[in-house]
Design brief:
The protein is built from 3 helices and 8 strands, in the order ββααββββββα. With 139 residues, the protein is of the alpha+beta class. The protein has a 3-stranded antiparallel β-sheet, covered by helices on one side. The chain has a 3-stranded antiparallel β-sheet with strand order 4-5-8, with no helix packed on it. β6 (98-101) and β7 (107-110) form a beta hairpin. The protein starts with a strand and ends in a 5-residue tail after the last helix.
């Protein structure tokens, strides 16, 4: 099972899945008082309103950040229309609900946003792990 970290303010729980993170920095730019990648713990959930946290988490391009409200159950993930976006010098983002099969035939359901590697250097294929930045991938 993938490693996750959770941060709760009593109203919302922010979930971070490090293996999905492509280090785009969108969270840091949007709420720099909350998301501080060089400090531990790196998320200070008490430094923004619940509404601001939710809005920022929704901007995460890889789906590494997600949230659930206090009384919301994880099982009811809404289906989202599928949309594909190619990021310049970065991953292929697929928005929507997907069933992804690995090379062994095992599958997992991905919802919201999934970032797929385009540079070929990810250590978490088929998903992007941000290695394209170090590899200086240009496309």
């Amino acid at each position: 099972m993938a490693k996750t970290k959770t941060y709760n303010n009593g109203e919302v729980t922010v979930v971070w899945e490090p293996e999905l993170c492509i280090h785009s920095g969108i969270c840091v730019k949007g709420l720099p008082n909350v998301f501080r990648p060089k400090v531990r713990p790196w998320i200070r959930i008490d430094k923004a309103s619940t509404e601001d946290l939710i809005n920022q988490v929704k901007c995460c391009p890889s789906g590494a950040l997600s949230y659930r409200l206090k009384d919301e159950k994880n099982e009811n993930t809404p289906l989202v229309e599928t949309k594909i976006e190619v990021l310049k010098n970065g991953p292929l983002l697929i928005y929507g609900t997907l069933k992804v099969f690995d090379k062994n035939g095992d599958s997992e359901i991905k919802s919201k946003t999934t970032a797929f590697c385009r540079c070929g250097q990810s250590k978490n294929k088929p998903y992007c792990d941000g290695t394209h930045v170090k590899a200086k991938f240009i496309d």
